[in-house]
């Protein structure tokens, strides 16, 4: 089951660049939450702070608290452990090129020492079914490289790979921006199904996408969160003038 | 009309330049391959006639006698190269991993990289002297071990630098994928980054191996050479380049012929060893793997 995320006074820097300023936000459990905003507004940095990927860059720095479920992820737990609870899907599909589809999906478990073959088989099948890819790849699981799939299939495989470690939260950083419309709609259907089991945070450039998949939407601008509300309210009656300007296409 | 003719002339010019460029590329390829083929055929011409069963099964006959073989030198080369690989490849790969993954941008990494480049340019005879003073002098005798270490040191810079280059070519997104799954960094480096880069790393190791397999100078005061059977790491050992060298400067015609045969065998064995490693490591590659 998913858990809620509580963000307080979150600030982040890349070198001297203050990319996130005083973010306060409560992301509800078992819902999809979309983050929108123009390029460079800090929305990607924000999701990378939720699984401590931000700090893998040596010049990056973070202050503030992020609570996921009942854990303060910057104090109670190591970055490696939190990333097993908070899965991430990246903008471009990033399969492990030397691994088969099967090994790609269970890589998170195998690399952490999980060896039970029968369980791995079950987890791979369940994860691929959850990612709506099973029927397309079930005959080539161990024969084909993960890199041999099409872009949309690769991205769904990456989602399956993230699901296989059984996270509570799934972060998606523009998961469909490198894909064609058919693959995009498959990913969106998937998000719609997955949110009953996971808390999903999706960064997107595409406002229609946010409107289609998310119950809640946050609007980021210049490193600050301008507005966070139900998706319906953000797109029909935003409280802030800047949000309105953005969603009506006056900038960004 | 004139515009049409202009276009025809231009396309004629373009296809001419195209053919010229293709021709030059083919010429360059021929120039690259020609010396190798020429050397190989000359070796076959000079050496093949002396190749017989005895060459691969017998040890050298005493000076002046006709016949005998290089069996001990072939085995000795294998022993020395095995020691060299055992010593040079792990250290080289370890150094490359450090340069690319852990020490990136640090002063120590820059120093290590610079040292590796300098080491690469050190004449091989100096490596021999180094191994001589490090191992032969304290042990008070020549040994296969000293020869292996001398060659191993020579392998390190090539292996280190190619490993570094190949690791740096692994896309950042692949590393992020591993970290994002909650894989510890060291595990991600070994199981994901190094594995992804492994074809290139193996090529680097093979280059280093092939290069030192033919080295004579570092073995002169380390392995020394041996006219008799020995596979012990603790004693002087024969090696093909040493045996070729000794026979080539000897006054006997039969030994000259055997030196040619030895050179042919040395090249053939290097080709076989490299192909074998390629074959073994390329098995299990998946359909569509990049």
Write a brief structural summary.
The complex is a heterodimer of chains A (252) and B (290). Chain A has 252 residues and is of the alpha/beta class. Chain A is built from 10 helices and 10 strands.
Question: How would you describe the overall organization of this protein?
Answer:
The complex is a heterodimer of chains A (252) and B (290). Chain A contains ten helices and ten strands. In chain A, helix 3 (101-110) crosses helix 4, helix 3 runs parallel beside helix 6 and helix 4 crosses helix 6. The longest helix of chain A has 14 residues, at 117-130. With 252 residues, chain A is α/β, with parallel strands linked by helices. In chain A, the strands form two sheets. Chain A has a six-stranded mixed β-sheet, sandwiched between helices. Chain A has a four-stranded antiparallel β-sheet with strand order 2-1-4-5, with helices on one face. The model of chain A has no long low-confidence stretch (mean pLDDT 93). Chain B has helices at residues 2-47, 53-57, 71-102, 107-121, 124-139, 144-168, 172-180, 185-213, 217-220, 240-248, 253-282. In chain B, helix 3 crosses helix 10 (240-248), helix 7 (172-180) crosses helix 8 (185-213) and helix 8 packs antiparallel against helix 11 (253-282). The radius of gyration of chain B is 24 Å and the shape is globular. The termini of chain B are far apart. The model of chain B has no long low-confidence stretch (mean pLDDT 91). The chains are: A alpha/beta (252), B mainly alpha (290). Chains A and B meet through helix 2 and helix 6 of A and helix 7 and helix 8 of B.
């Amino acid at each position: 089951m998913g858990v809620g995320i509580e963000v307080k006074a979150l600030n982040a820097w890349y070198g001297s660049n203050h990319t996130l300023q005083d973010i306060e936000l409560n992301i509800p459990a078992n819902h999809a939450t979309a983050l929108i905003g123009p390029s460079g507004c800090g929305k990607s940095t924000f999701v990378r702070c939720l699984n401590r990927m931000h700090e893998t860059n040596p010049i990056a720095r973070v202050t503030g608290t992020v609570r996921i479920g009942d854990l303060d992820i910057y104090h109670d737990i190591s970055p490696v452990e939190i990333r097993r609870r908070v899965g991430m899907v990246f903008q471009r599909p990033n399969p492990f090129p030397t691994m088969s589809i099967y090994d790609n999906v269970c890589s998170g478990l195998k690399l952490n020492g999980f060896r039970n073959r029968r369980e791995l088989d079950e987890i791979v099948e369940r994860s691929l079914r959850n990612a709506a890819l099973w029927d397309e790849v079930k005959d080539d699981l161990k024969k084909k490289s993960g890199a041999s799939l099409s872009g949309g299939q690769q991205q769904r495989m990456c989602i399956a790979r993230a699901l296989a470690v059984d996270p509570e939260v799934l972060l998606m950083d523009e998961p469909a921006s490198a894909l064609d419309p058919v693959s995009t709609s498959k990913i969106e259907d998937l998000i719609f199904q997955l949110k009953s089991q996971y808390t999903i945070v999706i960064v997107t450039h595409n406002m229609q996408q946010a409107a289609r998949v998310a119950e809640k939407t946050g609007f980021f601008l210049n490193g600050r969160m301008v507005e966070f509300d139900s998706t319906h309210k953000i797109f029909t009656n935003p409280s802030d003038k800047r949000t309105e300007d953005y969603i009506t296409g006056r900038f960004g | 009309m004139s515009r049409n003719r202009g276009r025809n002339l231009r396309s004629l010019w373009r296809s001419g330049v195209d053919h010229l460029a293709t021709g030059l590329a083919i010429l360059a390829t021929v120039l690259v391959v020609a010396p190798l083929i020429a050397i190989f055929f000359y070796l076959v011409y000079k050496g093949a006639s002396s190749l017989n069963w005895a060459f691969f099964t017998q040890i050298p006959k005493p000076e002046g006698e006709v016949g005998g073989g290089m069996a001990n030198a072939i085995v000795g080369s294998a022993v020395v190269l095995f020691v060299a690989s055992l010593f040079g490849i792990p250290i080289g790969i370890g150094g490359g991993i450090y340069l690319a993954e852990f020490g990136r941008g640090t002063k120590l990494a820059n120093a290590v990289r610079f040292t590796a480049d300098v080491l690469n340019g050190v004449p091989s005879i100096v490596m021999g002297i180094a191994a001589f003073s490090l191992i032969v002098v304290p042990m008070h005798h020549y040994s296969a071990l000293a020869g292996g270490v001398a060659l191993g040191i020579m392998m390190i810079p090539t292996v280190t630098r190619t490993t570094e280059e190949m690791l740096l070519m692994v896309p950042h997104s692949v590393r992020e994928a591993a970290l994002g799954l909650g894989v510890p960094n060291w595990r991600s480096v070994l199981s994901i980054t190094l594995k992804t880069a492994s074809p290139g790393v193996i090529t680097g190791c093979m280059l280093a191996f092939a290069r030192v397999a033919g080295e004579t100078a570092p073995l002169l005061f380390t392995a020394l050479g041996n006219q008799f059977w020995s596979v012990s790491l603790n004693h002087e050992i024969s090696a093909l380049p040493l045996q070729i060298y000794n026979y080539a400067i000897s006054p006997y015609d039969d030994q000259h012929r055997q030196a040619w045969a030895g050179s042919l065998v040395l090249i053939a064995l290097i080709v076989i060893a490299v192909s074998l490693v390629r074959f073994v490591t390329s098995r299990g590659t998946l359909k569509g793997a990049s």
